[in-house]
Write a structure and sequence with these properties.
The protein has a domain at 273-461 and 504-534: ATPase, nucleotide binding domain (Nucleotidyltransferase, domain 5, 2-Layer Sandwich), CATH 3.30.420.40. Helix 10 crosses helix 15 and helix 11 (326-341) crosses helix 12. A hairpin with a 3-residue loop joins strand 14 and strand 15. It is globular and about 65 Å long. The chain contains 18 helices and 22 strands. The chain starts with a helix and ends with a helix. It has helices spanning 5-15, 62-84, 125-135, 144-153, 168-177, 184-187, 202-212, 221-224, 240-246, 264-271, 326-341, 348-359, 400-424, 445-453, 467-477, 486-494, 507-522, 524-533, and strands at 20-25, 29-35, 41-48, 52-54, 57-59, 93-98, 104-106, 164-166, 181-183, 193-194, 199-200, 227-229, 262-263, 279-284, 288-293, 306-309, 315-321, 369-372, 389-392, 431-435, 457-460, 500-503.
């Protein structure tokens, strides 16, 4: 049990019910974070989970959602008990975030009609293409509206029974509060949002209703979708049923207000203080995406770019890649097992860190190696399925350093192609903030990402906590939302004294990465052939 002055202050804040709870359901981990009034993480808890490929669909069961949530909260409560010697009974506010997009359709009794279809599925090509043409607005394959329209086009039997449609964060929030709402950032990945009204785009809603009228008479989109709220608006309170769902022991009490449920893109922006124009952030996990807050609308529609919003409703260009660090993680497991076979068992974090540091000794272009991290399809490069690959020519230099550098470059390859489109729109970016586990190893992925995007990359003290910290910050914002806007709240109250490490692009890395990216773009034909052949 901690006994210093800081721990005493933290214990008093927790005991008084002044700490704030954030929970995020990420693609590989459900994590709960308790923060103080100034944003300091006080305790954490987590639960590992994985998506399943069932009937050619990527999914998670709803039972696993609640098992994971309960284990995360239990681990958090145990951390509080161990550090401060008190139970976690009340909080000032809480919030829930999760992976964006996907398809969760329910009937009038609240029963799930088909298994949760996650953002990772790429089966909505015809629907996304038709809607993009109709709206004059890019509708990515993973957006909820694309999933709904594809189900209508395919005449799936469950469609007539749909009474509500939401995201994973929206579903959990509804069970905790009884309210069907979404934060505007999460909502903007369900259906296009009008940044003037901070609501679903009325013109496009009418177009959609007219489009489906013949196939599904009486289907009105606004009857199905959750209400849209912006950061700072109270989105309900934790009910007794909701408290029991999070903590079956009955220790956690109901009554705390919740902020609007958000997607992981929005919480990533908050966690890196990248919610103002000319700022952006990159989140690296199972997927990888960049968010750039725009000063003006884009001039053209680009299939490589989603247009979403910050949690406050400001326009954001999003470069979303389905494949992130999973393949690099798989190789780290291989090397970890090799170390164990030699009689030197090593923890996963140590293996990962050692490999990343080795990458700094690699040649700037990766020594002629080529790597694709495509475990699943990648819409930006036009691939419906993925095949992880390592390819090299006979005259390439296969060293551990070149191999790992190429794996990191490969994780950033598709992102770079999308960022080039933004550069073509003359979007200017002062700093890109990065977060995710890859950045825990200081100075490696950060440096190589700076080369990949051609902009300074910053990592702040909250990067290791990431999205759960971001949704906790949005919950904390409920108390002062009437006094200040979200960027001011973050900059003055939570990031005022934070340490930020900024790395500018190294010219040699930039040149080497440029050579790699040319090789990467040309080699996409190899990836396509692998999908067709294997």
């Amino acid at each position: 049990m901690a006994t210093d002055d800081h721990a005493t202050a933290a214990r008093d804040e927790i005991a008084a019910g002044r700490a704030v709870l954030g929970i995020e359901l990420g693609s590989t981990r459900i994590k709960a974070v308790l923060i103080s009034s100034d944003g300091t993480p006080l305790a954490v808890g987590g639960h590992a989970w994985e998506n399943q490929f069932v009937d050619r669909m990527w999914t998670y069961s709803l039972d696993s959602v609640w098992t994971g949530l309960q284990e995360s909260v239990a681990a958090l409560a145990a951390d509080v008990q161990q550090q401060y010697g008190i139970p976690l009974a009340t909080v000032r506010a809480l919030g829930v975030s999760a992976m964006m997009h996907g398809y969760l359709a329910f009937d009038a009794d609240g029963e799930l009609l088909v298994p949760f279809r996650t953002w990772r599925n790429t089966t909505t090509g015809p629907a996304a293409a038709e809607l993009s043409e109709l709206f004059g607005y890019n509708i990515p394959l993973r957006w909820s509206i694309a999933h709904l329209y594809q189900a209508i086009l395919d005449d799936e039997p469950h469609v007539p029974q749909i009474a509500s449609l939401t995201t994973l964060a929206g579903y959990v929030h509804r069970r905790l509060t009884g309210r069907s709402v979404l934060g505007v950032g999460d909502a903007s990945g369900v259906f296009p949002v009008d940044t003037a009204t901070k609501d679903y785009d009325a013109r496009m809603v009418a177009q959609f209703d007219e489009l489906v009228a013949a196939r599904r008479p009486g289907l009105h989109l606004t009857d199905l979708l959750p209400e849209v709220l912006v950061a700072g608006q109270e989105a309900g309170r934790l009910t007794a049923e909701g408290a029991a769902l999070l903590d079956p022991t009955g220790t956690l009490q109901p009554g705390a207000p919740l902020c609007p449920p958000e997607g992981d893109a929005g919480t990533g922006m908050v966690a890196t203080n990248a919610v103002a124009p000319r700022t952006g952030n990159v989140s690296v996990g199972t997927s990888i995406f960049a968010m750039v807050v725009l000063e003006r609308p884009l001039e053209q529609v680009h299939h490589e770019l989603d247009l979403v919003t910050t949690p406050a409703g400001d326009l954001v260009a999003m470069v979303h890649c389905n494949n992130g660090a999973s393949e690099l993680g798989a190789w780290a497991e291989v090397f970890g097992r090799f170390a164990a076979a030699l009689g030197h068992p090593t923890g996963a974090d140590e293996v990962f860190g050692a490999l990343l540091r080795e990458a700094l000794d690699g040649e700037a272009d990766g020594g002629g190696l080529l790597a694709y991290n495509y475990l699943s399809g990648e819409p930006i490069t036009g691939l419906d399925e993925g095949r992880p690959l390592v390819v090299r020519t006979p005259d390439s230099r296969l060293t551990l350093a070149n191999f790992v550098r190429t794996q990191v470059y490969g994780a950033f390859g598709t992102l770079s192609l999308g960022m080039r489109v933004l550069a073509g729109e003359k979007v200017e970016l002062d700093t890109l903030y990065a977060h995710g586990g890859m950045f825990r190893t200081a100075g490696v992925a950060q440096r190589l990402l700076a080369a990949a995007v051609g902009a300074p990359v910053a990592v702040a003290r909250t990067a290791s906590e990431g999205g759960p910290w971001g949704i906790a910050a949005l919950a904390a914002y409920l108390e002062t939302a009437g006094e200040e806007d979200l960027p001011t709240f973050l900059s003055t109250r939570l990031f005022g004294d934070s340490e930020v490490d900024v790395v500018a692009p190294d010219p040699q890395d930039v040149a080497g990465y440029g050579v790699f990216l040319e090789r990467y773009s040309a080699g996409l034909a190899i990836e396509q052939a692998a999908v067709e052949a294997v």
